[in-house]
Amino acid sequence: MTKKLIAKPLIKQIYADLKTEIIDNGFAPKLVIILIGEDPAAEYYVQNLVKKGKKVGIEVTTKLFNVDITQTQLLTEIEKLNSDANVHGVMLQKPLPKHLDESEIVMKINPQKDVDGFHPLNVGNLVLDREGFIPSTPNAVLEILKYYEIETSGKNIVVIGRSDIVGKPMANLLLRKNETGNATVTVCHSRTQNLSAIIKQAEIVIAAIGNPLFVKADMLKDGAIVIDVGVNQIEDAKKGYRYVGDVEYEASFDKVSAITPVPGGVGSVTTAMLLKNVLKAYKLLHG
Amino acid sequence: MTKKLIAKPLIKQIYADLKTEIIDNGFAPKLVIILIGEDPAAEYYVQNLVKKGKKVGIEVTTKLFNVDITQTQLLTEIEKLNSDANVHGVMLQKPLPKHLDESEIVMKINPQKDVDGFHPLNVGNLVLDREGFIPSTPNAVLEILKYYEIETSGKNIVVIGRSDIVGKPMANLLLRKNETGNATVTVCHSRTQNLSAIIKQAEIVIAAIGNPLFVKADMLKDGAIVIDVGVNQIEDAKKGYRYVGDVEYEASFDKVSAITPVPGGVGSVTTAMLLKNVLKAYKLLHG
Q: Where are the alpha helices (DSSP H) in chain B?
C-alpha cells in the first residue's frame, strides 16, 4: 500500500476528467461565490478557485456585498442567482456577519445549486443515500479512500469531530452500503471520555477537529490509516508560519500504515470536489 | 436508578399533556394514514392509533387504496392531502407494492405534514439540529432517556442497526449538543467485525436490529443501560406467539443497571411520539 496518501495524482486525474468532459460537450458551468465584507483569507481561497476553475473550463465569479447588507437584501440577491439560468452553483462564504440569520439564508439557496451541500435537503439526501450534493471535504476523503483502495467495510473507523460540514456528513457517508462505506463508525468530540483509548482501537482515524497536532503518535494503533482533515496555521521560526494537520505527521509516520500529508492531502482534493459539484449542478440544470 | 425502564408512567404523562393542550385550545388535529392494499398487521397498528388518537382529541383516519394504484394516482392523492387545510399529518404505511417508487412518494409529502420524519428535508433538519419532525422511534428513545434521567454526555453509546428510520437518526440525535446528546456514538451493523467486543464497551446499548434476542447477556458490560428497540414475534408453546426484543431481557436483567422491557418499552412510547408530531404539525399549520 502507498504510505503517503498524497493528493497530487488523484486531483490531476479529476481535473483532467473535468476538463475533457466540459470541453468535449461544450458545457459552460458557472459558480457564483457570495462574499460579504472583505476578508483576505476568503479572497485568497476564492482566487485559488477562480484559477483552478479556469483550468478546467468552469467560470468562478464573486458577488461582493458590504458587511451591512440586510437579511432581506441578501435573500433577494440569492433569489436572483437561483433564477439565473446561467448560474449553476451558488456558494456562501462563511462566517457571515452576526446580524444575518445563516440558517434562513442557507435554506434560500436552491438545493439544485447548493454545491456546498449545506442545505438540509442535501444533508438528508446524503444520509438516505439519495442523489444530491455531498460537502466537498468529506467527499474528498471518500475520493482518497477510493483512489488508494482503502477497504472500509467492517473496519473500525473513528471520526474525531462532529461539525455539520465534516464530522457528521463523514460519519453518515461511511455507513452507506457501498465501496467506501459499510464501516463501523465511532464519532468522538470535545465531550468524549477516554478519547485516547477509543482512537487506539481505530483501524482508520479521520481527524477533523481543527486543532493543530492534537492527535499524538502514541494515541494511534500500530498500522492504522490516518486521514487528516485539519489545516491549521502555526508559527514557524523560519518562515513565520506554516500549515499542519490535526495529527502529528512526522512522529506518526513510522507507526501508521498510511497517512495523508498536510498540506497536499485532503485539503487539495476539496477544491477539486467542489468543482466537480459545479459540473454536476450544470448537468442537473441542463438535463 | 429505576431498573425496569417501563413506558407506562411516561406515556401517561404525554397523553395527559396532549389531551390538555388540545382541549384547552380547541385544537382539531387530524392525521391521515395512506394504506395500500390489505395488510392485517398494518390495520391492527392503525386501529391502535385511531383509539389512542381519540383519547387525546386527535382524529386519525385512513385512506385505503387498491394495490394496483399507479404512481401518478398516488402522487395526486398526496397532493390533495397536502393542500387540505384540515389535514395536518400525512403518513404512508409501508412497505409499498413493488411497482411504486417509494423515494418519489416520500418526497411528495409536504415536509410540514411529514409526521413520520422520513422526508429528506426533515432528515437533514434532524442532523443539523434545526426545527423539524423527528421519527417516532428514535424520538421515543430520547423521551425514555429524558424521563429516566439517563446521562448521555460523554458516554459510550453503541447503536446496533443503521436503518434510515431508527439507527441512523438515533446516532445523529445522540451527537446533538443537548441534554440527550453529547454522546460518543458508535454505529454497528451486519458488516461490523468483533461486534461482541464493541458492545462490551458500551455504557449504553441501543439495539435496533429487528432480530429476536440477538444480543446475549454475556455480550453486555456489567452495569450497562439497555434500550431495546426491537419488537419481534416469536413462537410460544403456550400462547402460540409472543413478542420479544433484540436483547435477552431475562438473562440480562441482573447484569445491567437498567433495561427497557419488550413489550411495554420503546414501542409503547413510539405511538405517543407520533401523536405528539401530529399536534406539532397542527400548530405549524395554524401558526
A: 8-25, 40-56, 71-83, 102-108, 120-127, 136-147, 167-174, 195-200, 249-253, 266-285
